[in-house]
Amino acid sequence: MSAILPHDIRQAHARIRDHVRRTPVLSSSRLSAMAGAELFFKCENFQTTGAFKARGATNAVLMLTDDEARRGVATHSSGNHAAALAWAARRRGIAATVVMPRTASPVKIAAVESYGGRILFCEPNHKAREEAADRVVRETGATLVHPYNDPRVIAGQGTVALELFEDVQGLDLVVCPVGGGGLLAGTSVIVRSQPTPVRVFAGEPEGAADASLSLTSGIRQPVEHPSSIADGLLAYIGDLTFPIIKENVEAIATVSDQEIIAAVRRLFGVMKIAVEPSGAVAYAAVAGGKLPVAGKRVGIILSGGNLDLERVLG
Amino acid sequence: MSAILPHDIRQAHARIRDHVRRTPVLSSSRLSAMAGAELFFKCENFQTTGAFKARGATNAVLMLTDDEARRGVATHSSGNHAAALAWAARRRGIAATVVMPRTASPVKIAAVESYGGRILFCEPNHKAREEAADRVVRETGATLVHPYNDPRVIAGQGTVALELFEDVQGLDLVVCPVGGGGLLAGTSVIVRSQPTPVRVFAGEPEGAADASLSLTSGIRQPVEHPSSIADGLLAYIGDLTFPIIKENVEAIATVSDQEIIAAVRRLFGVMKIAVEPSGAVAYAAVAGGKLPVAGKRVGIILSGGNLDLERVLG
């Protein structure tokens, strides 16, 4: 049985709904025709702070006791979770310290600063990030809000799918991006709790395909030097998120950076919306013909919109 | 009295509403805070064909008799009206011939082609455009659907404001871009028909400020060599649109190309939406502090989203 229940996600939704944005579900007859399916895009690129991460971070911050809250929160993140936690912390009037890789996108660094978060830069690898965050927790007594391996965060991220099913009837399958697995785990719990069977798939960058490898082999498998233009999806699948994903998710399709960029450009050119590379990975998997969507009603999560224009064009 | 009545616009809405998209009104707490006003963006960048032009073109095409329809339609346009007319004609199963300046944006040329329109290229000046279109009309018997100086088109464009007032209560003022004046004329008729007083302003590129000059002097005044990154707003204010604008519009603020590009980038960076330079001119006027918006509820029309990424960044 999952560590996260649909009930936890519904409670999270009640807790955060007045704080975050209910994002629209958009569709495009042109993109649907190209995919040979009916596509419904859940636009978390329009979410406060520019990504779904505001949901999990807000849920975690609101669940702190007053005593915990007084000592602040800390995390490590390539950017969107960092910005979201800084934003959620400021709304509660508490301090947030975030450890970011020094290679993080300038847009994301600027966002954390704009929300008043304190930034500590570290080397761009998993170990350096976790160690630096642990040090902050030891020194300040802050509560660590992990970007994905945290039940409060997973429950918050699951609210995306909750709204998607409220707004669109009769979905046959749902496609979600996967990095550390917080969004996918929460999504999969909601998908599998629907009264009728709905299939759940994910998209993952080829250069950071640890979740795909892990799902195939059944055992968590790191990728040594993950690399992709989808900078939000380089994290290693969590030991809390993986069992949930393994139980619920049918398959994870991998996509190349070229396919991701093509998806970003098409969402921009046709739908007139900004979606960052990490946020376009689920659509890239559909557009690349890698999932059994033909003739189906397909929910696609566009997870974030913090796009560096120059980076995608360069 | 206006040549266009609110009643004409309501009839146009009833005629076109099943054909075009009801676009959303979006807001951003960050952009509102920056402007010191409550901003409501009517997102015609999400309209079918990527711009509000689908409304006027559809209204004109649907008003043709069967006999007229058989001989097709023709127009001249820098692009968005051309694409819209080709699209509307194809929906009715009739031919569309469009005269485009050979300097038109490649995105817009591709759009006309994708909707099956026949394109004739001409020199990029007003006289060459009108002459080429007149020739097509003489040779084919097609009905000319002028991009703005046509009551059917003006009535169609006015439906944007109709929806804006349905969706947002208590607006104090409305800001609209102006080129040839079709959208502004239709908008102004709806604004002035509201039960409570609402002010109507426009934004215009500095390099093509004929509408601003004309409104100030009270007499239509062409600008010799209009030039701006807002390629949809280079047209000369019409002899049909100008009297309506003169009667209803309080002032037209001019904005530099630099201010327009800053507006496009900010709408993209903060709101995650693609708005083309011409479509961002009304917001540029507000963001540039050129209109009396402080503390007010302000409706801003974002008129199109057919953005050449490279051109804005270059």
Descriptive notes:
The structure is a homodimer of 314-residue chains. Chain A is an alpha/beta fold. Chain A has two domains: 209 residues, 3-Layer(aba) Sandwich (Rossmann fold), CATH 3.40.50.1100; 96 residues, Rossmann fold (3-Layer(aba) Sandwich), CATH 3.40.50. Helices cover 45% and strands 15% of the residues of chain A. In chain A, the strands form two sheets. A six-stranded mixed sheet of chain A has the order 1-2-10-7-8-9, sandwiched between helices. In chain A, helix 6 links the parallel strand 4 and strand 5. The longest helix of chain A has 15 residues. Chain A is globular and about 55 Å long. The mean pLDDT of chain A is 94.
